[in-house]
């Protein structure tokens, strides 16, 4: 199934348009990948916001905070 089909399915879980209150990001990567590459899809977040989210989450993982 193409990635866009997965995105459509996941988007159906939540509200649409202005009523959305929850965002999602799905990261997909091949096992054994050694260069750290992956693909992602989201339900409309800007790329810069996704990068910020990932940096903040990585910091939480590094410091052991939730």
Top keywords for this entry?
66 residues; alpha+beta; two-stranded antiparallel ribbon; globular
Word description of this protein:
The protein is of the alpha+beta class. Helix content is 39%, strand content 12%. The protein has a two-stranded antiparallel sheet with strand order 1-2. The N and C termini lie far apart (33 Å). The mean pLDDT is 80.
- Count of discrete alpha- or pi-helical segments spanning 4 or more residues: 2
Supply the number of structural domains: 1
How much β-strand is present in the residues?
Answer: 5-15%
Residues in helix, %: 25-40%
**H/E element string?**
HEEH
Spans where pLDDT lies below 50 across 5 or more residues: none
Major beta sheet, strand line-up:
1-2
* Biggest sheet details: 2 strands, antiparallel
Number of strands: 2
Rg? 14 Å
Distance between the termini: 33 Å
Short description:
This protein is α+β, with helices and mostly antiparallel strands.
How does the SSE layout of this entry go?
Layout lengths: L2 H9 L13 E4 L10 E4 L4 H17 L3
Antiparallel strand pairs: 1-2
């Amino acid at each position: 199934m193409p990635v866009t089909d997965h995105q459509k399915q996941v988007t159906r879980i939540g509200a649409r348009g202005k009523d959305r209150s929850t965002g999602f990001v799905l990261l997909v990567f091949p096992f054994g990948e050694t260069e750290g590459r992956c693909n992602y899809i989201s339900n409309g977040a800007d790329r810069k916001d996704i990068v910020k989210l990932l940096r903040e989450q990585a910091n939480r993982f590094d410091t052991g905070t939730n």
